[in-house]
Amino acid sequence: PIDTSAVASILFTKGDVKFEYIQNGGFSMVTNVKTKIKIYKKEGYEWANKAVSYYIDSSPPEKLNFSNEVTYNLVNGKIEKTKLKSNGLFEEKVNKYWGKKKISMPNVKEGSIIEFEYTIISKNFGSIDKWAFQSSIPVIYSEYNVSIPEYYAYTPNFRGFLSPKVTTDKKETRVTINEMSRSDSFYTSTSKSNVSTLTFNNSITNYVLENILPIKDEKYVNNIKNFISSIELELATIKFPGESPQNFSTDWETVVKKIYENDDFGNELTKTGYYEKDVDALLVNITSKEEKMNAIFSYVKSKMNWNDFYGYRCDVGVKKAYQDKTGNVAEINLMLTSMLRYAGFEANPILLSTRGNGIAISPSRTAFDYVIAGVEINNKTILLDATSKFSQPNILPIRDLNWIGRLIRKDKTSNEINLMPEINSKDIINLMAEIKSNGEVSGKIRDQYFDYNAFSYRENYNALSDETIVEKIEKKYQDVEISEYAVLNKTDLTKPIVESYSFSTTDEVEIIGDKMYFSPLLFFALTENPFKQETRLYPLDFVYPTQDKYSVTIKIPDGYIVETLPTSKSVGLPDNNGNFKYNISNNGNQIQLMFTLDINDAIISSDIYEEVKLFFKEIVDKQTEKIVLKKA
Q1: Which of 198, 384, 576, 580 could form a disulfide with 175 if both were Cys (CB 3.0 to 4.6 A apart)?
Q2: What is residue 361's predicted lDDT score, i.e. its pLDDT?
Q3: Helices and strands, counts by H and E, the chain
Q4: How far apart, in whole angstroms, are the C-alpha atoms of residue 352 and residue 348?
Q5: Count of Cβ atoms closer than 10 Å to residue 611 Cβ
Q6: How buried is 281 (Cβ within 10 angstroms: 0-12 exposed, 13-18 middle, 19+ buried)?
Q7: Pick from 157, 101, 114, 104: which is nearest to 132 by CA?
Q8: 297 DSSP 8-state letter
Q9: CB of 479 within 8 A of CB of 505?
Q10: Which helix (H) or strand (E) holds 64?
Q11: Cβ–Cβ under 8 Å, residues 473 and 460
Q12: Around Cβ 169, how many Cβ atoms within 10 Å?
């Protein structure tokens, strides 16, 4: 009822987290999740599959088990139960850190109800798995219970726009402990069983949210998971009787100190004896600091190959990674940081959370999943990420552009670093075209990509053949034939990408009687407003600031004159978030258009969504406005 278009809904989901004391093993965290889902349409069949990841790079590794997996169908008025068989359970080792188990429920039809539960047993207390109350389908009832012994303190971190009902309680727990003691004498050896009782309080918190509308992804959203109503509990302190407290994530300074002290992080920065000779040879006859930095950065990019693993901790270590020429994010960028320090730079690692991981809101070691290098020159911090062959100083891979990172110095202090680009990346298009009397349009296009636009081009197209790129352009614009394609500066990162080609199309001019109608931007015109929702909760994320600049010259056919020409126009957004300028003129048989669109901030608040929506409507209206030619 709360969403009649739903393909499925979660009728009920309940998570229980508790700490169980095991003889001779101490505490283990046990998470049990029960779920019941109704399938309404064939498009909802995917909800009959469930995959759960578990951490295996620990001692002991986590254990995960599914149970009580049943599909229910109503057949001739009777409930038919189908249990999951062994061939519906799949297990895989994702990498050295993670395993995954997946179930595929049997006999699923429109109208089926499926239910299952799974249990994870873990010794990893650093954080309690995030509980998402909201989903991409409606959730009728979601409950989360967490029972934590008094020895552990966790900080709850909420996300999203919905708040669950929260109740708390305390409960005393008694655990009987059996211990064997051994007594030896000259003649005999005896064993004795000692029984003791461990008594402690559990803090029990219950979270409930009901009738939850699905979260809908929208255009220009960074990562929709940032806005799903959810809770994650991060370990703050451990305090056992008679012991000093251990602090973990009470504030950012504590978090970064713990990370820096990790052997797989800070210790790797101090390792030497594996690159010095190479760096010395590299810097011979280079005196400029900027040139030295660029030389080291380019060397690491060309030598090292990223193995696609994220994380701020090293796996095999910087020395072996250097030897193998392959490493994860931490190995490559901590190695880079160390080399820059060796060359005399004030270089430090910068922790960040990638776009896919979500925004790091609260102090937490698990908030980060990536590390880059920062070099302080002339009171400015230059950002470097050597995992991509096409990155440049302050031109990071798109995955890195996620609000704020934290720079960690040698003394383990830290400060925030803005990861978002501040300069507009330009896309400058020169279009020269001629319209023939039959309505066919042909011409030449020269497209220059700067900064992040050039980076994105190289990431997406450098490995493709020219023929494949032409096919993509023709598919994008439809009814356009491309020839004489060429591209410059694919490997010279200091220069913009320059793409040029000839085109012809018969689909851009409409002939009615003795008149012709066409948009001066031809197939480049934006014909649809990307913002259609009435309201919006999420910030608008354009990834990086941009400038799109079109210079258009169109020769009209002999025997025609301009009857109607669009008017020039200029429109801006509040606080200079964006603007566009449309200047058009007619000189004899030529029409000239200069159109510039600036988006000056990568992230624009949803507070001015109405203004942004209207702004793009003005762009669509202006770009699709027709020039009218008539026979002289």
Answers
A1: 198
A2: 82
A3: 9, 36
A4: 13
A5: 16
A6: exposed
A7: 157
A8: H
A9: yes
A10: strand 63-75
A11: no
A12: 10
What pLDDT, on a 0 to 100 scale, did the predictor assign at position 193?
Answer: 66
Residue 426 tokens read as 């330009």
Name residue 7's amino acid: V
Strands (E), 411-520: 414-418, 425-435, 441-449, 480-488, 497-505, 510-512, 515-518
Burial 366-383, CB ≥16 within 10 A → b, else e: bbbbbbbbbbeeeeebbb
Q: In what order do the strands lie in the sheet with 63-75?
A: 78-83, 63-75, 113-122, 26-39, 8-22, 139-149, 189-212, 165-184
183, pLDDT greater than 70: no
Distance from C-alpha of 83 to C-alpha of 262, rounded to nearest angstrom:
46
Q: At what angle do helices 329-342 and 289-303 cross, to 10 degrees?
A: 150
Q: List the structure tokens of 166.
A: 């929260």
Q: DSSP character for 390?
A: T
List the one residue out of 534, 544, 527 whose CA is nearest residue 609.
Answer: 534
Give the CA dihedral 460, 465, 471, 477, nearest 10 degrees: 40
Name the nearest CA neighbour of 561 among 631, 613, 616.
Answer: 631
pLDDT, tens digit (0-9, with 9 covering 90-100), for 241-275 = 889 998 887 788 888 888 999 999 999 999 999 99
Q: Where does the pLDDT of residue 186 fall: very low under 50, low under 70, confident under 90, or very high at 90 and above?
A: very low
Over 60: is that where the pLDDT of 182 sits? no
32 vs 66: CA distance, rounded Å: 10
pLDDT, tens only, 201-217: 999 999 999 999 999 88
What is the CB neighbour count within 10 angstroms for residue 444?
14
d(CA 290, CA 377): 8
